Amino acid sequence: MHNVLIAGASRGIGLGLTRACLERGDKVYAVARNPNGEALAELQRQYPQHLVLIAGDLTASDAAQHIEAALQEPLDILLFNAGIMGPQHQDVAQASADEVATLFLTNAIAPMRLARQLAGRVRAGGVIAFMSSQMGSVALARSAAMPLYGASKAALNSLLQSWDQSAERPQASLLALHPGWVRTAMGGDQADLDVDTSVAGLLATVGAQLDQGGCHFLDYQQQTLPW
Ligand SMILES: NC(=O)c1ccc[n+]([C@@H]2O[C@H](COP(=O)([O-])OP(=O)(O)OC[C@H]3O[C@@H](n4cnc5c(N)ncnc54)[C@H](OP(=O)(O)O)[C@@H]3O)[C@@H](O)[C@H]2O)c1
Fold this sequence. Notes:
- The protein has a single domain, classed as NAD(P)-binding Rossmann-like Domain (Rossmann fold).
- It has 227 residues and is an alpha/beta fold.
- It has helices at 12-23, 38-46, 63-70, 97-118, 147-164, 195-208; strands at 3-7, 27-32, 51-55, 75-80, 122-131, 173-178, 215-219.
- It is built from 6 helices and 7 strands.
- Helix 1 packs across helix 6 and helix 4 packs parallel to helix 5 (147-164).
- The longest helix is centred in the middle third of the chain and has 22 residues, at 97-118.
- It is globular and about 50 Å long.
- It binds NADP nicotinamide-adenine-dinucleotide phosphate.
- NADP nicotinamide-adenine-dinucleotide phosphate binds at residues 8, 10-14, 32-34, 57-59, 81-84, 106, 131, 133, 178-179, 181-182, 184-187, 191.
């Protein structure tokens, strides 16, 4: 039984992670912009003792305060799942300042800022994980179809590596995760994996890193990806 916080839990992979953690007996803090949606409300009915719903937009400057106020015990796993694709056009030439700011704030700056603010609530040997993407790998160079999204995930990976090398690095394993190509609103109908398959692999990957330390870029099958 672990204490797990999942940031971005309303649907898709985040909802799947929340459900799977509850099914295995974890206590789950689920952060969502709208925690009153039907899916989370149903889980709350099923697991009233084990699910704590927290309303929060992760990009809000006071998000960490709201989250901290709801935490009752140290976390084993702090997982930042929320992400957006950015503008449909994915074109640097067309991108407005607002589109770029929202994309990079949501996918890179906000999760890292929150992680730094909440790191003291993670037990020594815990895991702090970020949902990245193989499209964030500069070495693999697989983001040509979605360059703005890929750049935002590369920025997330870069910030994670910088944190790992800083004096403020927490005593936790730091992970960038690739969930596979998953059938969600973001991944689309043609994606390879259903949510449950990705989630089972992600939780095994995260679980294997408890008490291991280090900073790793791993996919849902525990394979190392190049940065
Ligand atoms: N699906 C794939 O194939 C794939 C592949 C690689 C990486 N990923 C990454 O995996 C993560 C989950 O993707 P998904 O496919 O499950 O996407 P999704 O179905 O579009 O769900 C995105 C989730 O992020 C939440 N979110 C977005 N911005 C937020 C904010 N500012 N504050 C709080 N929550 C916010 C959404 O909440 P709302 O309901 O409030 O909008 C939703 O719960 C993302 O980081 C994505 O980049 C996905």
